[in-house]
DNA sequence: TTTTAGCACTTTTACTTGACAAGTGCCAAA
DNA sequence: TTTGGCACTTGTCAAGTAAAAGTGCTAAAA
């Protein structure tokens, strides 16, 4: 348990360091609270013993450790009211009545990325929560065929395929079978249903039924299991902790491209705003992910903001809170 | 006009520098051709006077200038036969009979990006070359509606929109009007046709015709005017000329995200393989873009490979040539 | 008991210095 | 026309120095 003064000092150090990423010395702190630098040094030593602060070298000022950030977020941070300008920018997006919810979210996270210089992510609902709504087939020329799949959440995917020696009627018959028999099925179970419910039937009247079955099977299994939208990826380059370290950047950029890692973001089950600092997330030990789930009607998903550990926690949490409330009403 | 020997020296320098990005001295060259380093130095001085070589400092070896690369590409480069391994990897993609052409191209450029460590780009045909094939509307819930647009090239886009106080029948009637009256129109002219051919008609029997018209108008004008696919963006970080220079990276990454810049790639009108070195392209003075158009049936587009000026020109040109030929037959 | 002044100590950073390597330009001889 | 040779330039690396920033600790003050 920390004393009042220790809390005060830790808070000051974290906030100073967030503003300006250079180690914080005892002198600046001693000016801010009313006591000598020696006293501050003693307290800093104690905070370091507790694992909340670190030194970059024996005689440097202090930097918050991962545990320090954690403690700050859990105990010291005060939620910041959004400033008028930020709110105005977001209201411009929210006010637009014509936009569907998913567009509103995407656009406003784009705005947030620009105003904070952090990367933002929107994750849609997972494939097992998306039910097949409709399959549509549109012939492009005598060889190619575009297959369009729509889910009940309005997620659309399409793929153009080549079919040989299969008549259009055969294809259309198959599609109408699919629409009649297995729409309403979760996307990731469609493959199974195709095999057991559609394949036996079309076997009877489609010459190239094996081929036709294979094609549809692939279209459905290639269906991405979650819509993922990353915005402001390049903002990562603006952060001093990364802009001097190509290896970090490579890692972060590669992770942002890996769908599996990103979809891990959504693991948590409750509805609050979550902060994953450094090693607490799967992306990189030097980033923090702040995220929250949202749910409105039958649409749900997760929005996340990714930045350096030295993130403006209070501002970001405030923003996400505002976003969430605006989405859900 | 250069002498035989000058050509030889320039070629050697360019190729050595491409292999290993350190300035090339007279000694190594003198060993490769049969004469003394002093002679080589004289020739190098001459090549520098002609603007084909540069020094990084007064006593450094030489580095090819932009004009040097250009001269190399135009006069000295010998086309390289593809090696068996590269060919094998690509054949694996080409052999897959089930893939539609656009997937074959995308997949093989992904392979090329991985084997060369360069960024690759595929551009589809422009919107004025894409004719509206079909509009499809799928109701998601009582407020939202997914609109799907398919072009004759198999390019698909979709958008979910909110409609208030418009009945489903009204929407469907409008859509069938669009499909009957203006399918076959180039995408970028659909807006106009909507206004003059559809709006007057629906005005008669749709209550909220203004709203309905606006929604469709926006869907069509938001249609991206060209499909652009960038692969291996992160490969840029592997190039030593960029990995030490964050500002360069920022610029290149931002350019790769700007559709306008990329679509400039397609400006040229003939069918050959084009090389745009440094300032000859719009992306960055330190990159080279090698590109070619392809055309098969009614599908056409451009494929491009983007790397440092110090690019393996012969290998890349060979690859693109191979790609082009394989696509077109 | 807590706070503080003060001092010795450590480390980083920015410069300088010197030695060496790599490479050039140019002159004079082959 | 080519080449050997030499003076000269620049970059790099290691070592050294001085100043700046900050710490820990001790002993005195509150």
What does this structure look like?
Two copies of one chain form a homodimer. With 329 residues, chain A is α+β, with helices and mostly antiparallel strands. Chain A has 13 helices and ten strands. In chain A, the strands form three sheets. A five-stranded antiparallel β-sheet of chain A has the order 7-3-10-9-8. In chain A, strands 4-5-6 form a three-stranded antiparallel β-sheet, covered by helices on one side. Chain A has a two-stranded antiparallel ribbon with strand order 1-2. Chain A is elongated. The model of chain A has no long low-confidence stretch (mean pLDDT 94). The A-B interface holds A 97-103, 133-134, 136, 138, 140-141, 144, 146, 148, 150, 152-154, 156, 158-162, 164, 214-215, 218, 233-234, 237, 243-244, 246, 249-250, 253-254, 257, 297-298 and B 97-103, 133-134, 136, 138, 140-141, 144, 146, 148, 150, 152-154, 156, 158-162, 164, 214-215, 218, 233-234, 237, 243-244, 246, 249-250, 253-254, 257, 297-298. The first copy, chain A, binds a DNA duplex (30 and 30 nucleotides) through α3.
**Overall radius of gyration of chain A:** 26 Å
Q: How do the strands of the widest beta sheet of chain A line up side by side?
A: 7-3-10-9-8
Number of helical elements of chain A: 13
- Sequence of secondary-structure elements of chain A: HHHEEHHHEEEEHHHEHHHEEEH
Residue windows where pLDDT falls under 50 for at least 5 positions of chain A: none
Quaternary status of these chains? homodimer
- Approximate helicity band of chain A: 40-55%
How far apart, in Å, are the first and last alpha carbons of chain A?
40 Å
Report the major sheet of chain A: 5 strands, antiparallel
Strand-residue proportion of chain A:
15-25%
Which outline of chain A best applies? elongated
Biggest interface reads: A-B, 43 and 43 residues
């Amino acid at each position: 348990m920390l004393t009042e003064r220790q809390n005060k000092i830790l808070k000051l150090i974290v906030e100073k360091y967030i503003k300006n990423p250079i180690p914080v010395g005892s002198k600046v702190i001693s000016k801010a609270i009313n006591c000598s630098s020696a006293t501050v040094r003693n307290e800093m030593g104690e905070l370091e013993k507790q694992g909340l602060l670190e030194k970059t070298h024996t005689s440097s000022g202090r930097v918050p450790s991962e545990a320090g950030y954690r403690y700050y977020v859990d105990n010291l941070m005060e939620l910041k009211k959004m400033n008028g300008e930020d709110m105005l920018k977001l209201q411009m997006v929210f006010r637009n009545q014509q936009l569907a919810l998913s567009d509103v979210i995407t656009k406003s996270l784009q705005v947030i990325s620009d105003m904070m210089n952090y990367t933002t992510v929107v994750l849609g609902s997972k494939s097992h929560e998306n039910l097949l709504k409709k399959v549509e087939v549109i012939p492009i020329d005598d060889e190619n065929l575009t297959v369009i799949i729509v889910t009940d959440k309005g997620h659309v995917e399409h793929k153009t395929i080549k079919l040989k020696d299969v008549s259009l009627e055969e294809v259309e018959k198959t599609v109408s079978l699919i629409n009649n028999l297995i729409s309403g099925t979760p996307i990731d179970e469609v493959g199974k249903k195709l095999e057991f419910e559609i394949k036996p039937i079309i076997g009877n009247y489609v010459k190239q039924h094996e081929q036709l079955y294979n094609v549809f099977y692939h279209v459905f299994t290639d269906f991405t299991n979650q819509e993922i939208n990353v915005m402001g990826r390049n903002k990562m380059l603006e952060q001093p902790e990364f802009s001097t370290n190509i290896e970090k950047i490579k890692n972060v950029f590669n992770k942002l491209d890996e769908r599996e890692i990103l979809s891990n973001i959504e693991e948590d089950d409750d509805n609050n705003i979550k902060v994953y600092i450094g090693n607490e997330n799967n992306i990189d030990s030097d980033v923090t992910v702040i995220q929250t789930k949202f749910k409105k009607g039958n649409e749900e998903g997760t929005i996340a903001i990714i930045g350096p550990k030295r993130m403006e926690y209070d501002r970001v949490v405030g923003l996400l809170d505002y976003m969430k409330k605006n989405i859900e009403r």
